[in-house]
Amino acid sequence: ILNVEQxxxxxxxxxxxSTNFTCSFPSSNxxxxxxxxxxTAKSPEALFxxxxxxxxxxxxxxxxxxxxxxxxxYLYIKGSQPEDSATYLCAFIDNxxxxxxxxxxxxxxxxx
Amino acid sequence: xxxxxxxxxxxxxxxxxxKSLKCEQHMGHRAMYWYKQKAKKPPELMFVYSYEKLSINExxxxxxxxxxxxxxxxxLHLHALQPEDSALYLCASxxxxGTLxxxxxxxxxxxxxxxx
Lengths: 112, 116
Known about the structure:
The structure holds two protein chains of two kinds.
Chain A: E1 5-7, E2 10-14, E3 19-24, E4 30-38, E5 45-50, E6 56-59, E7 62-67, E8 72-77, E9 86-94, E10 99-102, E11 106-111
Parallel strand pairs in A: 2-11
Antiparallel strand pairs in A: 1-3, 3-8, 4-5, 4-9, 6-7, 7-8, 9-10, 9-11
Chain B: E1 4-7, E2 10-13, E3 18-25, E4 31-37, E5 44-50, E6 53-57, E7 64-70, E8 73-79, E9 87-94, E10 106-107, E11 111-115
Parallel strand pairs in B: 2-11
Antiparallel strand pairs in B: 1-3, 3-8, 4-5, 4-9, 5-6, 7-8, 9-10, 9-11
């Protein structure tokens, strides 16, 4: 069973704060890592697809980095806004897309 | 249209009932997925269809039976479920199942299933 972990489990920040959280995954048989944002009562929404060691992706105030050799990815949010409140999930893919495993998520609450 | 739709939104069924969940997308995606999500847990992959053929079945009990009638539609037939099968069932689609490039998945809003 593949083990994908995320930390912290939950996070409360003030509006305007910058924050980051971690996804840890097996460093062997890596193929890709996805990041998703899941707001309450909505569908999970893809943020990033990362495939190469050293990848850095950015979308607005959100960015992500990838280290496949040590098995982790960081998600950063700059200047958090209340609308960033959501659960952030990473998903590890190995063996040419034959296994998709989500981490347990980090629940972010941004207080106005 | 970047929407994945799922019907019904909520379903309550007895353990002897037969029901079906439906998922539809019109993005031209060739891969479709079923996930099961229990409260406070991440989604767990159940099935993957690639080009209308079942490519992954994650050891799901036979009381769950997937069907892909065409590239836009995905069904999940339910029969003789147990109360522990109560969960949110999510459908997703992607350009393909990632054999060459791991495309992002587009998710539907889910069907909340309660088995009594």
